Amino acid sequence: MSTLTRIRAWLTFFIVALVLSGLTAFPVESELRLLAPMIPEWTGPLAEWITQVRDGLIDTNDRYPYVMYAADWPAFAHLVIAVAFAGPWRDPVRNIWVIQFGMIACAGIIPLAAICGPIRGIPWGWTLVDMSFGVFGVLPLLIAHRLIRRLERENVAQKE
After folding, report:
1. Burial label, 61 (beta-carbon count in 10 A; 0-12, 13-18, 19+)
2. Cβ contacts of residue 110 below 8 Å, gap of 6+?
3. Calpha distance 88→13 (Å, rounded)
4. Exposed, middle or buried: residue 11 (CB in 10 Å: 0-12, 13-18, 19+)?
5. Coil, strand, or helix at residue 150?
6. Nearest to residue 102, comparing CAs of 140, 128, 74?
7. Which end of the chain is more exposed for a tag (fewer CB within 10 A), N or C?
8. Which of 20-24, 37-41, 85-89, 121-125 has the lowest mean pLDDT?
9. How far apart are the first and last CA of the chain?
10. Residues ≥6 apart with Cβ < 8 Å to 26
11. CA dihedral (81, 82, 88, 91) positive or negative
């Protein structure tokens, strides 16, 4: 498999993950209505937290649906950011800055979750789950970055 093909495979994975993350954020109330009954009661705090979040979303959406509009914007942002990765997919060496931007964004998830989670009353375990998106999100980007540097060296060697 060529270096370019490997880069594109990792970027495709990352783009699909961003799109799925964005698309699944729009119907969050419906998803929680389905998920909450599936969480066994023996999980204790997890079941309680999922139920509390579901009930809060239902109540907010029933009484103040415009507040949920604020949640639509981050979902949309995932879709827009995914489009940005079309540049490196087409020309990875020229657009490596998009990969670097993505890695910075992934790193930013950790302090955001660590600071805002406690302020918003998010349980520490859930804050760690949120942080994991940055950790697991950066992995395909680090691999793609390394491969893009390799492709750059291969291109230089071909010109010599």
Report:
1. middle
2. 131, 134, 135
3. 13
4. buried
5. helix
6. 140
7. C
8. 37-41
9. 23
10. 72, 75
11. negative
- Reference 100, options 142, 132, 140, 137; nearest CA is 142
Q: Enumerate residues 6+ apart whose C-beta is below 8 A from 20.
A: none
* Amino acid, res. 74: P
Per DSSP, the residues of 53-77 read HHHHHHHHHHH-HHHHHHHHHHHHH
pLDDT of 160 strictly over 90: no
* CA 147 centroid distance within chain: 21
Distance between CA atoms of 50 and 82, rounded to whole angstroms? 28
- Is residue 31 pLDDT above 90, yes or no? yes
For 52-72, write each residue's pLDDT tens digit: 999 999 999 999 999 999 989
Q: Following DSSP, what letter does each residue of 27-39 receive, concatenated?
A: THHHHHHHHGGGS
Q: Encoding tokens for residue 70?
A: 């604020």
